[in-house]
User: What shape does this take?
Amino acid sequence: MEKKCLLIVSVLMLFALTGCSDSHHSAPPETSPPELSDGDVVSFTLLQTTDVHHRASGSGSFLTYSPGDGMDSSDGFDQTQGGYARLTTKIAEARLAAMAQKIPTVLVDSGDFLMGTVYDMTMGDTPAAFYFMEFMNYDAVTFGNHEFDYGPAGLAMILNNARGEDGTGFTVPIVESNMKTDGVAGTD
Assistant: This one.
């Protein structure tokens, strides 16, 4: 049984890291901002994710879930939660639809992107959530309560690991308010 659990965890970790590279980004091409006059109306599409809880590969709510038919044993509807591949598809579809109408998009996450699955074991390195948000070119993220589950020092370690030694790893802006820090480098 222990070997089976170890094998499952190893396969999941391999799956998580297989697609995690920064060599290809899926952001739309850069465009210059339009010239605006008084009274002009500006439109944009806001894409927002929240409470992903490190569900990188997605998970069905029942053991009988089959990704092939999109059904589970509950009520005949797909009850799968999370999955970066699913999010990537929906984000790309929304960006393409907006781009076709020449409407810019803004992609944000409102927190609780960490904590909740086996992918939490990647926190000693760069967590899968940070790879995903960097790859998908998020415009900004904020922390939810679960980003603080390991305390200020734990969060500082996670962020330092995500940024990398040279500071070029995770570059998505983190927007916060009402957060008190102690001013000691590396602890919060």
